[in-house]
Design a protein that fits this description.
This protein is an all-alpha fold. It has helices at residues 14-36, 38-41, 52-64, 67-77, 87-108, 127-154, 168-207, 224-250, 257-285, 296-316, 319-323, 325-349, 364-387. It contains 13 helices and no strands.
Amino acid sequence: MHKPMALRKPFWTPGVLVLVAFMIVGAFTIIARFTGGIGYVANLSTARPWGLWVGVDVATGVALAAGGFTTAAVAHIFGRHAYEPVTRPALLTAVLGYTFVVLGLIVDIGRSWAIWKPMFNWNTNSVLFEVAMCVMCYLNVLYLEFFPIVAEQFKGKVNLPGPLALLNGLVDGILHIGDAIIDKIMWALIILGVVLSCMHQSSLGSLMLIAPTKLHPLWYTPILPLLFLTSAFAVGYPMVVFETTIASSSFKLDSEMNILTPLTRITIFLLGFYMALKIGDMAVRGTWIYLLDGTAQSNAFVAELVLGVILPWFMLLSPRIRASRKGLFTAATLIVAGVVLNRINVFIVGFKPPLSDPGYFPSIAEMMVTFGLIATLMFLYRIAVTYLPVLQGSQEVSR
């Protein structure tokens, strides 16, 4: 029976201390970025207005958080309640992933203090406006969806220390009232989350349609928004497999192969549809002529397509691999890596402005900011699963 529980594990482990070290380095680099300006820490320029922070922190973060809405859709909208045990970890990953996206944007945009302005200055002709509003709304929807998990753990047990004890009644009342209200509207939040996700997942691809002379032909296509959307669908369940397998291995929990194996049967169709679109588009537009020209762009595209799409799709066709924990994890990792590479290819590798540009490679400081944000995301995940009922505590392996 599905009964999520907080982990009964020591929090401060060597791995957590490593995360803290990356967080500290990242924090100092972010301070340098805001005191010295973007040019002080990044290799960006007028010709290269975005780089690692947009390609990884934003575009990739949005794609890999797709497990939240795809799992919610299959479990709650389509009524496949057998997948309930993985919905909470997927929701947590989505909450942290989109928070990571917003933090990355704050670091990347020139005037971070003005990030709130799209709420009041609407430009309905702008793709970025639609992305900004959808991400903002969806992040709030995710927080509301996650609230009942917090309420479940602390409702009726609020015990703040010292002078904060005066707030015990208020906080407990908020938990009770909020949980009761959200329980009645959860169905609407789930549907709204799926709709908002589909909108901005595709719009990130629409953003690059305005750059036909700057994006390599292997990636520039009129159906780029559709490719971004279908790749997000395809990576949703593999990301759940990836995250669940790592969590169960790290925390010594029983594997959930009885759930993950049938879940990935859906991925065969989703990934196959994405693969057909991608190969069909390349054939129709005749861009296959660039595949073997030996450039960094063609090599990156071949790696993305072969290793991140075709190979794992054939792997998932095998019932033996789907039933194998290592085999399934390998296939899921390849799919996740393929989508990561796709977003990096579109926003960095394939983006070549027709200007006098020496090329772009992220600076050490840019990498430290990204590593620091990723470490923060993993640190918060560790806190959440340690103190909140997220993972399948009933399946914890006894020593």
